[in-house]
Design goal:
With 339 residues, the chain is of the alpha/beta class. The chain is built from 12 helices and 7 strands. The relative contact order is 0.11.
């Protein structure tokens, strides 16, 4: 019995060896094909990397050597939404520094007056304020339109945005949070664009800067509504850019990662300034240089590296898995600080 089993085992090993040898021999026929596929794959990765590096150098280095003349290239006035704090305020400063008059559109009147006066005095430009709460939706735009009449709007920065107080399951978000995301993050972008686009088209020049987010690259659990609204901004902005190529109008999508502003103040994990998390001033100075040099950019070189890795080397399932656990870590951090 044992001898029979040994004989069967020997036969099985011999058959397996012969099968493997035959398989390897047959695969050898495809060796040139595998070589070509390997070369093409490596070549594609290298070309993507070189393209990304080239775009990065153009946006973040070349743009600093040959700065755009914003008034001459686009127009005399800029409109910045969400402009009393954070990125909006600092971006308005960058525009004023380059000689543009600024219309500030934001919610809080006292802050509007203070920031407007501060920038007018510091840079010697004209400023105007428009009090508007974008979470109120459609009714606010008639008043904004009156303030923009007869102004040569050269640059529109659709910056206003909201984020949940901290990462949380969608079911825990309030109705107010839900509609604020829709009215502020989504509706404001096409609505403001609609106000300034006709004038830009008549003059054949202008720039529209739409602030999206790095979170638009994949669905992001626990801030899913925010990521989804920023994906809308990205898609709308890219479509608009394609529609108006050759018209003299520049449309730019800006997709920042974490920036140290009031929106990220809920946790030091995403608020403490550093190389990966610039403050608003550093970010605005960096992204303002890219206007006219990049159609779609993160605005900041470190965030650009992050975007390249996310878009080229990570599928959405892995991205969601990582971001879910990253946001759970933030939730635990917030709870720990509250205890």
């Amino acid at each position: 019995m044992q001898a029979c089993q040994r004989r069967q085992s020997s036969v099985w090993r011999h058959w397996a060896t012969m099968s493997c040898s035959a398989l390897l021999a047959s695969l050898g026929v495809f060796e040139p094909l595998f070589t070509v596929v390997g070369i093409l794959t490596v070549g594609r990765i290298l070309l993507q990397a070189l393209w990304a590096v080239g775009n990065g150098l153009r946006a973040h280095f070349w743009s600093r050597l040959w700065r755009k003349r914003l008034v001459e290239d686009y127009g005399r006035w800029a409109v910045v939404t969400g402009s009393t704090d954070g990125i909006g305020k600092e971006y308005a400063k960058e525009l004023a520094k380059r000689g543009m008059n600024v219309v500030f559109v934001s919610r809080t009147l006292d802050k509007l007056k203070k920031v407007s006066a501060e920038i007018a005095q510091e840079f010697g430009v004209e400023t105007e304020i428009v009090q508007a709460d974008f979470s109120d939706g459609r009714p606010i735009y008639e008043n904004i339109a009156k303030h923009l009449q007869d102004k040569e709007i050269g640059v529109l920065v659709n910056n206003v945005g909201v984020l949940l107080p901290q990462p949380m399951p969608f079911g825990d978000a309030s109705d107010k949070d839900l509609w604020a995301h829709v009215n502020v993050n989504v509706a404001s972008v096409p609505a403001m664009t609609k106000l300034v686009l006709p004038g830009m088209l008549r003059r054949g020049r202008g720039a529209i800067v739409n602030v999206s987010s790095l979170s638009n690259i994949c669905p992001v659990p626990l801030i899913g509504i925010y990521a989804a609204t920023k994906a809308f901004v990205d898609y709308f902005s890219r479509s608009l850019e394609h529609e108006y190529r050759g018209s003299g109008i520049t449309v730019q999508t800006v997709m920042p990662g974490y920036v140290s502003t009031n929106m990220t103040s809920y946790s030091d994990l995403v608020h403490k300034p550093g190389v990966f998390i610039p403050n608003a001033s550093t970010f605005a100075a960096s992204t303002a240089h890219t206007l006219g040099y990049a159609r779609r950019t993160t605005g900041y070189w470190v965030h650009g590296i992050q975007a390249h890795l996310l878009e080229n080397f990570m599928n959405s399932e892995l991205c969601m898995y990582i971001m879910y656990h990253w946001h759970m870590m933030q939730i635990r951090s917030v709870k720990k600080n509250q205890d």
